[in-house]
Amino acid sequence: MRKSRGRTGRKRRRKHLKSFMDGVNCSHKLEYIKLKKWLKERGFEDRNLRPAEFWETGRGLMTTKALQAGDLILSLPEKCLLTTGTVLSSCLGGYIVKWKPPVSPLLALCTFLIAEKHAGDKSPWKPYLDVLPKTYTCPACLEPDVINLLPKPLKKKAQEQKMMIQELFRSSRAFFSSLQPLFAENTAAIFNYSALEWAWCTVNTRTIYMKHPRRECFSLEPDVYALAPYLDLLNHSPNVQVKAAFNEQKRSYEIWTNSQCKKHQEVLICYGPHDNQRLLLEYGFVAMDNPHSSVYVSADTLLKYFSPLDKQRNAKVSILKDHDFLENLTFGWEGPSWRLLTALKVLSLGAEELACWKRILLGGVTSARNEQQALATAAKICHFLIEETQHVLLQISQLKRDKENLKPHLALVEMLRSEDLKILQKSAEILCNLNLGT
After folding, report:
1. What CATH number was assigned to the domain covering residues 82-227?
2. pTM summary value
3. What is the pLDDT of residues 279-298, one digit of tens each?
4. Which parts of the sequence belong to the SET domain (predicted)?
5. How far is CA 336 from CA 48, 69, 244, 271, in A?
6. Which residue from 35, 75, 82, 414 puts its CA 20 to 30 A from 329's CA?
7. What residue spans define the domains of the chain?
């Protein structure tokens, strides 16, 4: 008797563990019940997807039936989509049409989100707003201490992202003030910086691409955004393929899968072939074992390995600059990129070889010495980046102990840096074999 009870206990534990790995169904939660009811009123029907919490990706959608390649995952009617058209048909529309110079489609959507969030229970969009994240992990929202731990090229982009939101806020204050007749409270208190940052991150991380006709009341920036309730619960995987587009006949946004998905598994879509730095910058997350991921080499790091006493150094740097070979130089899972090796070959040219630079840019070879020097320098840069990454990972683990409040953000940068380390170690191995070969 005792034995069988143990077996049942083990079975139960296994079953519990399996359901935890598959995902914990959340469709009974009040916020999702209200969201589904609200979507149904707008013509959305869905029998196969359930909101769930997943171990690796957090909140997402689980399928209640096995999906085959070519199956329709989801079809969201136009009435459910939040676009600039939605904004113009709201009470904000008249103010936007009158405002000069015209606001951007992005600002119109941000303004609408802030106003509807402020309206609370009175907002017809409340069921959707209630399931949106309260905070985001885009670099713009990170503390300076955390931004400092990012790789150099991403740190620069993170600072640019922060400045862009600050500039949007500064330049939009007069427009926000013009909306005062719509509110009992002071608009400065409603449309504050943190509200705009939240709205900007909502639009930037959650919109689907949907082209809208040009409207005179908006600036010339492309009007290509649509917020898609429920659909935006689908998480990203670099290893799946989907087809997504607005169906003009059915007037709905559709996603079709080109991959299989087992019953009770998370349904994943692909946001594009993005590396981890791009995923963190645009969406605020990192994908483990991302085949598209790479480690960027800044121009500063590259030039550290070439003597300033080389009389032709400036000429070589000019050649690289003129032909756009000082940007997007990377190490990937397959070693140094062709662009990185090409830049290194140009910088490694001897005085008598400089005239051959065009041949190198076209993929040709000048000399065995040049090839060998480029590979040896690539290996040095790779080892330098490995040491730098290990040093940052050490800093992160110390900060995690000292600054409890920064833990979630530090964990994100730790994931990015750990993935970078794996790529660099793989590249070092490949370069070691190539150097031995030459």
Report:
1. 3.90.1410.10
2. 0.88
3. 999 999 999 889 999 999 99
4. 42-272
5. 44, 35, 33, 25
6. 414
7. 82-227, 294-437
